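quick one, 157 residues, struct below
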Amino acid sequence: MRYVLPLLFLVLASACSTVRQLPSTDSTKVEVRTETVFQKDTVFVELPLVVERVAVLDTVSHLENAYAASSAVVSGGVLKHSLETKPVKMPAVVDKEIVYRDSLIYRDRVQTVTVEVERKLTGWQQAKLRVGGFCFFAVILIGLYFLITQFINLKLF
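---
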């Protein structure tokens, strides 16, 4: 029993693992940004063409402004009056809605970089690498030997 705890400590102290754990999947995150901006803009409204005529007993007249022209003519004792609107595009200020949409994609990727060693391993380093595996199996075999002998000694007494 006295060899079980040191042997258990030796087994727990020897770890078998890779140097770096790779992520199981590449994670992707998409972020969408939307921004709405209202901007003042000028539009032109076209006025419709309108024609009106009136006949009365009166004198001659003529009127005109930016939107319409009016003229009156006496013919045979009757005044003929005509009013015509001019085709004008009239400016008007409106709010124009502009929507900006932008999306960002974030991806986590693992980039593997191979680094070459400047010199070869020394003889001592190569020996340690080769003997390390054999020592691990030797520790396991010694531990099994002590466990088996402990059980045999317990059964005999």
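The two ends are 14 Å apart (CA to CA).
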